[in-house]
Design a protein that fits this description.
The chain is of the alpha+beta class. The protein has 2 domains: 96 residues, no CATH class; 75 residues, Orthogonal Bundle (DNA Binding (I), subunit A). The protein contains 6 helices and 8 strands; from the N terminus they run H-E-E-H-E-E-E-E-H-E-E-H-H-H. A 4-stranded mixed beta sheet has the order 2-1-6-3, covered by helices on one side. Strands 4-5 form a two-stranded antiparallel sheet. It comes from Thermoflexus hugenholtzii JAD2. Pfam families: HNH. Keywords: Endonuclease, Hydrolase, Nuclease. This is 5-methylcytosine-specific restriction endonuclease McrA.
Length: 179
């Protein structure tokens, strides 16, 4: 999903802000409103402010682009959630049987579920509706179809997680490059 579509352009308080851990590790992206709350409560500091100000009737607040938390947030290594969107993204919106790109892709179980195939990264691929119907409830070998590449669980790199924002928010690059 494009960065500009994740946050509505109708309200400036929904603009994306990069949140860094105290050790400058990129954590996530939050809204401008959430970033202002974190800064005002003393939980974060502003590192980049090239967007101007947010004016209210009684106060003026800076519009940060990048904030850093004042404390380290410990969390387990990231894993991507198993969703249709992430499977299509991993397979680059291409049918893994015929190689055709299409906006109308489906998700196919390589080994059908009724035969013991699980709902896992290693058993799900993107498929066009025609190939999915052709394969049916068979394995690829039984249907005489081959996969372009074996399915795998993608590694959530910084470019994978934040790459869609880098075209629009160039000032984030220096904080994302070292990771």
């Amino acid at each position: 999903m494009e960065a500009s579509r994740r946050f509505s352009s109708l309200s400036p308080l929904r603009e994306p802000v990069l949140v860094l851990n105290a050790n400058f590790e990129p954590l996530n992206v939050c809204s401008l409103r959430r970033a202002i709350v974190l800064v005002l409560s003393g939980k974060a500091e502003i590192l980049e402010n090239g967007r101007g100000e947010v004016r209210t009737p009684s106060r003026v607040f800076p519009r940060p682009s990048v904030i850093r938390l004042r404390y380290v947030v410990r969390r387990p290594p990231r894993r991507l959630r198993l969703t249709k969107r992430e499977i299509l993204r991993r397979d680059q919106y291409t049918c893994q049987y015929c190689g055709r790109s299409s906006p109308h892709l489906t998700v196919d179980h390589v080994i059908p579920r009724h035969r013991g195939g699980g709902h896992t990264w290693e058993n799900l691929v993107a498929a066009c509706p025609a190939c999915n119907r052709r394969k049916g409830n068979r394995t690829p070998a039984e249907a005489h179809m081959t996969l372009l590449r074996p399915p795998f669980e993608p590694v959530p790199t910084i470019r994978y997680l934040f790459g869609s924002y880098l075209r629009e928010y160039v000032e984030w690059r220096k904080y994302l490059e070292g990771w």
